[in-house]
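Weekly structure sync, notes
Attendees: PL (lead), two postdocs, one rotation student
Agenda item 3: pending single-chain targets
PL asked that the sequence for the first pending target be pasted directly into the notes so everyone works from the same version. It is reproduced below exactly as submitted, 330 residues in total.
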Amino acid sequence: MPRADKLSKYRSKRSRERTPEPVPPDGPLPEGNDDTFVIQEHHARRLHWDFRLERDGVLVSWAIPRGVPLDPRTNHLAVHTEDHPIEYATFAGEIPRGEYGGGRVEIWDRGTYSTEKWTDREVKLVLAGGRVSGRYVLFQTDGDNWMIHRMDPRVEGWEPLPDLLEPMRPVQRARLPQHQERYGFEFDWGGERILAYISGGSARFRGARGEDVTADHAQLRSLGPALGSRQVLLDGEMTTLAGRSTYAIYDILHSDGRSTIDQAYEKRRTLLDELDLNGPHWQVAPWFRGDGAAVRAAAREERLAGIVAKRLDAPYEPGKESASWLRIPV
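Predicted structure, written out during the meeting:
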């Protein structure tokens, strides 16, 4: 069967002169083992993940807006797209803006798979990848719309992002704590408390009482695509920095399928710093170990209301006013 029979739609959307994507010449399709898969994170107009399976000389492809599910209780939409050439299994790069699928493509996972069933409406397979392994099924629902479902139990140790977590609150103190070396110090921004729930490239936001405030902060929605496939729960405040409304992030309560609330504040801050979250409307708030007097003096210069002292060894206590956190006026 000539290659153009299966790749004509792919070719019609791309030009070798304008895109770095592989556009192989006409000719016979390659013969493989029908056992390679690749998942590509695609930062196009809307972030999604492209799931591709080697089959009869091409990569049969689906676009999955929220990524491959790790929990059998959740099915994800998978939109069937045109077949791609086998060479696409190793493609990563920047598709120029204005071209079909313009944006950054990264290889998120790849590996091998075995087929349990393959029909025009249902595909059952077993994945063996670096990030995703297990039994999955894709099934057609309506036209190009399919669903992908994990048939195995959820990945061992993996926990879904909680639907709601109440923020921890500091107690009020007039003076700096003794043994300042046991504390980390942050500025008290005095802004609107917000928890950010990030999963599958999308973001939703809840206020201090658990109310949904996503619609009130449209400028923060791009925080979801900025984190890509990361699944995190962040704690912070809306404040004004350099004249711009900014989400100052100072804690991480869930990270890629693991709750972090039982970990020490110092460890959580290390995890948060590693995310390197500095965007147009958000940034990781600074923290300082041990020298509360200097932090309070800096807060006074910035005309902030106070600072917060947090014990380095303290876990996060949802919904509690805890003496592990001390709010100290300047």
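Discussion points:
- The chain is about 10% helix and 45% strand.
- The mean pLDDT is 93.
Action: rotation student to compare against the earlier draft before next sync.
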